[in-house]
Every structure is written in C-alpha cells, then in structure tokens.
Amino acid sequence: MKIAIIGGGPAGLYAAILLRKQRPQAEITVYERNRADDTFGFGVVFSDATLDNFEKYDPPSYRRITEEFAYWDDIAVHFRGTVHRVGGNGFCGCSRRTLLLILQERARELGVTLLFEIDIDDEARLADADLIVLADGINSRFRDKHIEHFQPQIDLRSNKFAWMGSTRPLDAFTFIFQETEWGPFIAHAYQYEAGRSTWIFETDAETFQRAGLEGLNEQQSADRMAEIFGWYLEGHPLLINRSMWRNFPMIRSQRWVKDNMVLLGDAKATAHFSIGSGTKLAMEDAIALADAMAQAPTVNAALQSYEQGRREEVEKTQHAADVSLVWFEHVDRFWDFDPVQFAFGVMTRAKAITYDNLTLRAPEFVREVDKAFAKQVRAKGFDVDLDKPVAPMFQPLKLREMKVANRAVVSPMCMYSAKEGVPGDFHLVHYGSRAIGGAGLIFTEMTCVGREARITPGCTGLWNDEQQAAWTRIVEFVHANSSAKICLQLGHAGRKGATKLMWEGMDRPLEEGGWDVISASPLPYFPDSQVPREMDRAAMDRVKAEFVAATLRGVACGFDMLELHCAHGYLLASFVSPLTNTRTDEYGGTLANRLRYPLEVFEAMRAAWPAHKPMSVRISATDWAAGGITGDDAVAVARAFGEAGVDLVDVSTGQTVRDAQPVYGRMFQTPFSDQVRNEARVATMCVGNITTADQVNTILAAGRADLVALGRPHLVDPSFTMRAAAWYGADIACPPQYLPGKEQIFRNSVRDRQDFEDLKVKAKPKTRAELKAEATKPLAAE
C-alpha cells in the first residue's frame, strides 16, 4: 500500500507513525513544504487524558514527549489585583518544535519517508497513492481547491489575537485580564520548557484599534504588549515568531473525505486556542484514522468509518471551544463581577468544569465562591450566613415583594390535559407535588386568555369562572402545603393554535374541531397549516382586553407572579420576529415597531397586576434561523420590557419557524441568558437541557442567570429540589406529613455524598505532575 501525507505537522506525522506501525510493509511518504526544523508558534498543550491516549497508541513517542514536557496542575486567574489558583487540572506543555522533531525521529525509525521543502499542490502528482492524507493545516490548499466538495464554513471571530513567547517562567496555566486606557487585554500563558513560555494575547477589535496596534510590525506589537503586561513579565522579554495579529477562523467542513483523500487536523476543523485543543484534535484525528484503517476492509470504507465515527467528538470539542471563545469575546460583560465570581466564570466557561467538579478539586476556592454569592444575597436584604453559606441554588431571591426560598424553578410545561380550559385533578397533583418537592417557584403551563387562544383542545385557560375556581384551588393548595411561590403564565397561541395534542402530532393542525387563528401576518406554520388572519386594530384591542381580563382573574386566584408569553412563535412572539412579521404598518419593520404591540399588552397587564407583585416575560432569544432574532436583538427586547416594568426575563429560544436549526447540548440556552442578564442588566431565568443541581449551582455562581428552570427532571422527580437540598446540606421547607422522609434522606445524603466523593477521588488517576513529584521525592531526600 502507498500512503501519501501532505503536511508534516503533528497530525500528518502522527498519522504516518500509527499507519506505519499498523502496516510495516506500506510505503508511507510525508511531504512538507517547510524545512525540517521550521516551526511557527511556541508551545503546545495536552491534558493528562490526551497523554493517556498517546501512551496507548505509541509508547516510544509518548516517552520522548513526556521527557520534554513542563507539567502544571494549577490554573491561575489574575483579575483586578487578585489571583485565584485552582488545582487538579493536570496539563502539560511542550515546545512545538521539540514535538515535531520527536515525531519526525520516530517516523524515521519506523521507515517513513520524510520529504521537506516539497510543495504538493495537485493530487495528480500522487496518482499512484492508495490513500492521500490532507494534513496541510488551517490554510489547507486542498480544502480550498475542492471547496465545493468539502464545503468548509469559515467563521472569522471578532477578537484579535497574537501568539508570542517569553523567557518568563510560569508554574501554572495563567490567565491575566488587564484593564488599560484603551480597554481590556487578555493573556493566555503557560510554560512549555525550562526558560520558555507561550503567551497568546487577545483583545476585542475596538480596543485593538484604540491601542494603536493596527499597522505595527511584530516587534512593535511585542513592545506594546510588554508595556501592558510588564508588571507580570518582571523584565523578561517577549519573543516573536510570525506573531502577527489576526482573527481566529472557526472552521467546520461539511465533508472530510473525497475519493481516497481525507482531511486531518486543522485542515478539516479548528478549535479555539482558549481550550488548548488544536494539537490534541489533530493527533487524535490521526488515532481515529489509524483505527478506522485497521478495522475496515477497504480504504474507502475506512475513510467513511473515520468520518462518521470521529465527527461527533470533534463537534463536541468545537462546541466547547465556541462557548469558551464567546466568553472571552464578551469579557467586558463580567468586568464588574466580584473577582472570585469572575474567576469561577473563567473556570466554568466551556461547561466541562462545574461547581461539583471544582468542589472536589479546589474546595477552598468553591468556599470563596459561595461566600461571594452569599454577600450579594445579603446586599439585597437577606440575613444569610456568610461564614458557612449554603450553595447558590439554595440562596433566596426577591422580585419586588415576592421572596423565593431557593433558585430552583419548575419550568412552564404544557400538559395538554385540561377540559375546555379547566385544570383538573391531574393539574392539582402535578403542581401540588412539585411544590411540596421543594422548588422555590412553580410556573403554570401556558394558560390561554381565550378559547381561540389555545394551542390545543387540551390547553388550560383563564377566561371564565369555572377555570378561575380550578386555578384558585391549585394556588391555595400550593400556599397551604409548601413555601413555593406560583407564577401564572398567560399566552395566546396565534398561528400555532388549533393543533393536535403533543403526543398526537405536535403543531400539526386539527383535522376536525378547529377554530380560526390569528397572527401578526398571514403566514402558516406548516404549508398545510391553517393560514392565520392578520390582526387589525380591532383584533389587537380584543386580544389585549382578553389578556387584561385573564390578569385580573389571576389576581383573584392569588397567584404570586405573572408571566407574559412572548416566545416560541405564539401570537405575541409572531410580532417580535421578522420571520413571522411582514407587516408594513407601524407594527412591522424595525424591532422597535415589532415590539410595539407586545409592549402595549404587557403595559396593560402591568397596570392591572398588583404593583407589589413581580412580572416576567418569556422571550425567544434566537430564532435559530437566518434573518431571525439574534442574541443582540434579545438584549434590546429585554431592555424594552425592563423599561416597561418587567422584573425577570425568562430566556428561552426558537420554535418560531419550522425550519429552525437549533444547536442542542447541555445547558444550550444558558449563553443567551448570560448575554441578556449581563448586557441588558435585567434579572434572568435560564432553561433548556439543564438536568442536575450541579448545573444549577454552576450557572448561578458564574452569574449567568438569577433563577434556573428545569422541565424534564421535574417530570420524573417532583422532589428534585428536596433531594438536592439533602445532597448539599441546605435546610428546606417540608410539610409535616413528609418530615420523616426528609429527615431520612438528609441523614443518608451526608454518608452518600462522602462515599461518592471518596470514590471520585480514588478513581481519579494521578496527574503526571503528581507522578513526577512523587518520582523526585527520593532524589530530594538523598
């Protein structure tokens, strides 16, 4: 077999090593356009888990790499005169040049042919190769040559960055957040060998311009950075090596394989430097390709298997990188945070590290985080313990005169189980059991303001006395048997009305028994959905009156809070989104115009709702569709409702148009809550694939939301919050009938948590920094 590898970087060299080990008789040639000892950049970084992989697949190169590595266990965050160090991270740095030379030497040992200063620009020159590996880097000419096939999407990120080096020794992966007269600068720095460290400097485009960096050469840029970070460099110089300022390209390729050619490493996909995974991804691509070649009967089958099997892991890493890079792009959102909360945000920005994870690895740091959060709560007038504060999830919150005992919320979830809008025994048990289960706040499902406002025939309503009496029964039960507060969510289905029950066909039109539907514009949801009537002024007045009438009934029911549903493509949301609002009058066009009617309804409800009780609004912070609402629009929407008197923005996303393409994942909507909260400066509630108390604490402690709503977890476990309180040792209200059960779970949880943490600690392999320290102890003793 003949294998040609274009590109002599880590991906290409490691692929050559693994494929040659697998096929000793194969003729493998690596073509590299640069010289053997040319390299750009300074150090590379790997986690202990990545090194475990290297050890498994090629022990000789692994041993050589680890002999050359600088190890560290801590991450140090420097911010506003403070330093927070967090241990237990297990990372290693190595010179990129050294890594390449190690891999070159190992490849030669195995009989791989390495050809340098050879520029291959046409695969026809390699026509006799059975496999062509395209590892020609971030600016891959072959990816671009076959752009219509590979279909790369290149997203040039907004921040500017430059990669430099220094002789400054470092004993931790170091983040430095530096305020300047021009704006914030960030340094990502780590040691990669004795006397050498990598320094990546980053700033936003506006600060870059104000600082006069445009047009400076490499040395002039280095001098400017040395001025800004000189206090930490302590006289050590900054080194340059193609250290130009540029924008990071996030690359995703629709296809990785063409005929017998396959993209590897940065040629196919990139991950932002803030999670240190670029070289890791490249070398793990080589591992995945080698595995596929070992298992598949043909080259073509192997390449298909490689792409199918590897894509999910690459996309997960890219998603983490996306979340991380956005945090750094918008670091100004958090600049006024308490420094320990800021440091916690740095640590948890990519979702891989969480509150519980840090509690195991850095308990003192998490205690600081808890105290900082408790201080914020005390500043709001609560007499909370600052010496031994409870976890953020169990800190109270006040909205106007309503106080919630904890931050766990039962999300509004349609049950589709009402008869003519009347909630029945099912709803009493549903809401009552979750209130008894300990949640601080319960939201009703979207309760419709009129019979023709319903989504389905099974939706609850609040337009007549029978419905009001049924809701009053539920509210009174919640108040009598729990400390939970209960919020009434009011909405109108609009063009998504007259549809089947969820389990019969979500959003599909009723085949019989339907009703007329209305919307901002006459656009059906599905092509075969009913075409809604475009609302005229008379319809607007009628619907607004329905919302006000339902609000007054909500007052009579005794609800603690009121929410207006302006999300998910329902009636009021259809005014907000340009995808569903094509009007040419004063209610269409600009965002301000599109908000005019929803704000009019909200203001009328606010006037009818008691002044001492809070109101919230649910919004879709993005439509997940081209031309629709964006995160920046969501900030403007939140500000407008804030000025109208809203107390909380319930941040959801999507469900506006049927062809939306949401990006799902853990806590996938939380970044929008983060943006709205910290740019619009309003309290927010986040929701969306949040499943654990650990995630709740992580979100709250990082300042990404003020309340956290959980849906599916509450469906299967009404006592979710009670269980979490036992786990974290936080006292919580419980009806007397259930006290024996509460006491038992609280007793058991002390032991269960200790056992769990002990197992976690024992199961965690020692980092290479720890192993190295242990190995040097006898020498030190002698």
From TrEMBL:
Coiled coil: none annotated. Residues 2-317 form the FAD-binding domain. Residues 393-725 form the NADH:flavin oxidoreductase/NADH oxidase N-terminal domain. GO terms for molecular function: FAD binding; FMN binding; NADP binding; NADPH dehydrogenase activity. InterPro entries: Aldolase_TIM, FAD-bd, FAD/NAD-bd_sf, OxRdtase_FMN_N, YqjM-like. CDD domains: OYE_YqiM_FMN (cd02932). Pfam families: FAD_binding_3, Oxidored_FMN. This is Bifunctional salicylyl-CoA 5-hydroxylase/oxidoreductase. It comes from Bradyrhizobium australiense. The lineage of its organism: Bacteria, Pseudomonadati, Pseudomonadota, Alphaproteobacteria, Hyphomicrobiales.
